[in-house]
Design brief:
By secondary structure, the chain is an alpha+beta fold. The protein is built from 13 helices and 21 strands. Strand 12 and strand 13 form a beta hairpin.
């Protein structure tokens, strides 16, 4: 049991919040030494300028012969000792030449962030201890903010509103789904990640923040007062023909228990069939998704296949805590991602559910979180996951069994065509 719990803690997914690391990682100083490799590589194309400012930089580079045409080129060396030398030299030049005050802790943090960003993986990042504490507060479903879910579009890098939480400042102010955040308090968010934007939106309770929005090409500014946001993950209701409806907003800590209680409530109210709404659910913790799947699958049915960088493949299976035996329909859309896709793919492949809606987001990778000794963390993509039928999800998505769009006319008339289709299939 102890070994099983250890493995559960390793399966952590992004666009949500994370449990503490599976192990203590390296000293920050070691990470900084590695981080400088990126700096050296980036500036190699401008070596002529840097060599002319002094001999300090001469030792950072070497000339090599181009085997093709005999021309020479400058390249950054890549051994640990050379990287250490680069770091030492940069520190020396900055200490001697820079005229301003230097926040050395910030210098280290930003160097590491730059190195991790250099991986060019949208889900890997370095967070300071303070940033990590904020992340964990979100995982518990309590934070001070305005009440929005966001995602980052892979093609444009725009940070887009997925949905607003019910009865929160954002909803009351008129912020809407699919609004593009272009600034916070007048500062452009171009180049920022969802995590960067989130940190700017949050603040002290009672203070105001202005969200700069682009909606259909028109700029709109919303000044909103921050409040303590309590996230209620699950909503249930009974529909006609003994159909129970349950929606899940995110896979945060404890949501599997909330979800199980919701299912049990619907069963007690007479539900023999179930609609699970995962639209706009951008994911969260893998452990929570796997626990939810136990409600619907027989023991040893496959829930998830993961593959690591070294080629190791692991198959996750249901534990046999099945609680619901009726027909199931799942609602999905383009913002259904990560842990939501795990649940959707597992129920679909095991023949337990019909999927209705539009193609899902396609986020099929898992992150581990490594905590450093000072409390900061490295969140790193370490695994790719596949559905029980070994179907790829990452950058592909899950195709619904029944493709149903919600048209502008549907929105205007407040008609949920996807929900209606699910009800028809379960009658």
């Amino acid at each position: 049991m102890e070994e099983e719990n250890k493995e559960k803690k390793e399966n952590i997914i992004s666009e949500g919040d994370f449990k503490y690391a599976k192990q203590q990682w390296l000293y920050k100083s070691i990470v900084v030494v590695v981080a400088i490799m990126l700096v050296a590589i980036v500036i190699s194309s401008s070596i002529t300028y840097y060599v002319t400012i002094g001999n300090k930089f001469n030792k950072l580079y070497k000339s090599t012969s181009n085997a093709k045409d005999g021309a020479t080129k400058t390249t950054a060396t890549a051994t640990i000792s050379d990287i250490s030398s680069v770091l030492s030299t940069f520190a020396e030049v900055i200490d001697e030449e820079y005229i301003g005050e230097i926040d050395k802790e910030n210098l280290i943090d930003e160097t590491i962030k730059g190195f991790v960003n250099g991986i060019k993986d949208e889900y890997s990042e370095y967070m300071t201890a303070e940033e990590w504490e904020e992340y964990q507060a979100d995982a518990l479903g309590n934070f001070v903010g305005i009440g929005i879910y966001m995602t980052q579009e892979t093609d444009t890098n725009n940070v887009v509103i997925v949905s607003t939480m019910k009865d929160t400042p954002a909803e009351k102010a008129g912020i809407q789904k699919e609004d593009i955040i272009i600034g916070v308090d007048g500062e452009s968010t171009a180049g920022m990640t969802t995590a960067d934007v989130s940190r700017k939106v949050k603040g002290e309770e009672g203070t105001e923040v202005t969200i700069n929005i682009s909606r259909n090409g028109e700029r709109k500014d919303f000044t909103v007062k921050r409040e303590t946001i309590k996230v209620y993950h699950v909503e249930t209701k009974m529909l006609e023909n003994n159909i129970g409806y349950i929606s899940l907003l995110a896979f945060d800590t404890g949501c599997a228990d909330e979800f199980a209680e919701g299912v049990q409530t619907l069963i007690s109210e007479g539900a023999t069939k179930l609609i699970i709404d995962l639209r706009d659910n951008t994911g969260g913790l893998v452990d929570e998704a796997l626990e939810i799947l136990n409600l619907f699958l027989e023991k040893d049915q496959i829930t998830l296949i993961t593959k690591s960088a070294d080629g190791t493949e692991k198959t996750n299976k249901a534990t046999g805590d099945k609680k619901f035996n009726g027909e199931i329909a799942i609602l999905v859309n383009e913002y259904t991602a990560s842990a939501s896709e795990i649940v959707t793919g597992a129920l679909k492949d095991n023949g337990k559910a019909k999927v209705i809606g539009t193609l899902t987001y396609g986020k099929g990778v898992i992150q581990n979180v490594y905590q450093l000794l000072d409390g900061s963390v490295l969140k790193l993509t370490t695994q790719e996951y596949y559905t029980p039928n070994n179907t790829k999800i990452n950058k592909v998505g899950i195709k619904p069994d029944y493709e149903v769009e919600i048209t502008e006319e549907n929105v205007k008339n407040q008609f949920d065509s996807q929900l209606k289709k699910a009800e028809e299939l379960l009658k």
